[in-house]
Amino acid sequence: REVTEKLEEVVTVWTKQIRHVLVESEQIRREVDDVGPSAELEHWKSRMSSFSSLLDEIKSSRVKKIISILQAARSKTLQQWKELDRSITIAANEAKDNVRYLYTLDKFFGPLAHASPVMMEHIPSLMNTVFMIYCTSPYYNTSERMTSLFLKITNQMINTCKTYLCEG
């Protein structure tokens, strides 16, 4: 009984830490006004790395042993643990999926940043790719995510035009 209580304390601490990570990940991102679309990819790559590491830790043999001991003891802390495990898995899958889709746009980021203001040759392909992401991504096809992406693409176009004007 004493061992079970100690392990429940450990799982309770983990639960609080994981909840904190989840809450932090859902907070509104603070970005400078003129950030470009590559920042979106970097954000999701960072998030993917964080959640993948967290998932690896949750799936480690040490954690599995503790969870199996608590399962045998029919601990009540496991319900919360299972919900958090599911939430972390969903967040990791979302980040991985978003990185995969945003990488399809990566080939446009360089030309968009370094083209002359007559960047029209890149726009149709870029918009087709964004449309494909919107239509096929199970996570990235929300109004909020698309608005953020379009804002960053527009910022990059404006920055490219400003640079062109200042250098010209």
What does this protein structure show overall?
It is a single chain. The mean pLDDT is 88. The longest helix is centred in the middle third of the chain and has 38 residues, at 77-114. Helix 1 (2-26) packs across helix 3 and helix 4 (77-114) packs parallel to helix 6 (143-167). The protein has six helices and no strands. The chain has one domain. The radius of gyration is 21 Å and the shape is elongated. It has helices at 2-26, 38-58, 61-72, 77-114, 123-136, 143-167. The chain has 168 residues and is mostly helical. GO terms for molecular function: dynein intermediate chain binding; dynein light intermediate chain binding. It comes from Emberiza fucata. InterPro entries: DHC, Dynein_heavy_tail.
Secondary structure layout:
Layout: H1 2-26, H2 38-58, H3 61-72, H4 77-114, H5 123-136, H6 143-167
In short:
The chain is mainly α and 168 residues long. It has helices at 2-26, 38-58, 61-72, 77-114, 123-136, 143-167.
Which bin fits the share of residues in helices? Answer: over 70%
Largest sheet at a glance?
Answer: none
Query: Structural class, please?
Result: mainly alpha
Number of strands: 0
Protein name: DYH5 protein
GO molecular function: dynein intermediate chain binding; dynein light intermediate chain binding
Domain Dynein heavy chain tail: 5-166
Pfam families: DHC_N1 (PF08385)
Offer a few descriptive terms.
168 residues; mainly alpha; 6 helices; elongated; DHC; DYH5 protein
